[in-house]
# Entry
Amino acid sequence: MKIAVFISGRGSNLKALIDSAKAKAFPAEIALVVSNKATAGGLSYAAEENIPHFAVSPKDYPDKQTYEAAIIELLSAHQIDIVCLAGFMKLLSPYFIGHFHGPILNIHPSLLPAYKGLHTHERVIVAGEEYSGCTVHHVTEDMDAGPIIVQKKVKVSKNETPDTLAAKILKKEHQAYAQAIRIVVSELKAYTSQTTTKNEEENIMASPTPTPTKVDPEEIQRYQLTWTRFTVISKYSIIFIALVLVIMALTLL
Ligand code: GAR
# Structure
């Protein structure tokens, strides 16, 4: 399975994914990194590991659809199976979601559906929440929504600041994303093998296309010879019988 990671900045989640993917048992490779900003620090992690990486800025395109179409082209050129948004601060449109035929995952630093959007940690602290955490979920057309794959919880301390809470949660994010990818890849594999078996069964059920049989030319020759002999013998037998009948008739007269 090939993964494209989309980033906008620091890229610590990207780095954690690159490191996880180095393990032999990890079921996917990070095959592409896309940033919407050329200045994103995370691009250097991709460069260090020789992972193809591109800064694709929306400013270089006349509209969002053309911009997203350019990214989709990159994804298909690199045969990407899964897209992982890791701090990618652009909302993907229904056009992108409809045109990329694979799972799109996102990580968000809160226990979704609570605290969607920006300034999560500040809002959690102000609200006096006892727990916060992170969520990896499938991307749908709505922001920070979609079916949840993995969630990890942390306790909010008494003298927590947005920065200390962010750091605590970030550690969990780095574990959660790799875990979510393992789950999604195994689900994809199970789905693929199910559909393959179904297709094989359908092929068996469908009337089979006849396989052309290879004909031996010597056999054709043997057949033709036998047929010629048969016709010659039959011809002479008929003449012989006719003669016998004529002789018998003359004798009787
Ligand atoms: C992460 O905390 C991620 O959860 C958050 O941006 C940060 C990116 O950090 N994403 C969102 O808030 C998306 N709604 P990173 O660049 O070091 O991976």
